[in-house]
């Protein structure tokens, strides 16, 4: 188990039944980076990866 799995499990346990929009998630990511600028690159990579999940060119 990776260390990040604990945070992911907490997210699923606490927010799993919630329904949110991607716009809401994007705003939360912006807020997180504003508070933690040292995480700008990993958040950018995560956001780009999520945005491109369905791209056929990445097969």
Strand content: under 5%
Mean pLDDT: 90
Radius of gyration computed on alpha carbons: 13 Å
The structural class is: mainly alpha
Unreliable runs, pLDDT <50, ≥5 residues? none
Helix segment count? Answer: 3
Count of strand segments: 0
Distance between the amino and carboxyl termini: 26 Å
Gross morphology is globular
Helix/strand order, N-terminal first: HHH
Main sheet characteristics: none
User: Percent helix among the residues?
Assistant: 55-70%
Please describe the structure with a list of short key phrases separated by commas or semicolons.
mainly alpha
Textual characterization of the structure:
The chain is an all-alpha fold and 59 residues long. It has 3 helices and no strands. The radius of gyration is 13 Å and the shape is globular. 0% of the residues are buried. The model has no long low-confidence stretch (mean pLDDT 90).
Give a quick precis of the structure.
The chain is an all-alpha fold and 59 residues long. Helices cover 66% and strands 0% of the residues.
Walk me through the topology.
Blueprint (H helix, E strand, L loop, with lengths): L2 H13 L6 H14 L4 H12 L8
């Amino acid at each position: 188990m990776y260390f990040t799995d604990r945070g992911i499990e907490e997210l699923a346990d606490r927010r799993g039944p919630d329904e949110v929009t991607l716009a809401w998630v994007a705003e939360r990511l912006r807020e997180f980076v504003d508070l933690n600028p040292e995480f700008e690159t990993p958040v950018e990579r995560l956001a780009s990866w999520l945005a491109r999940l369905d791209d056929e060119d990445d097969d």
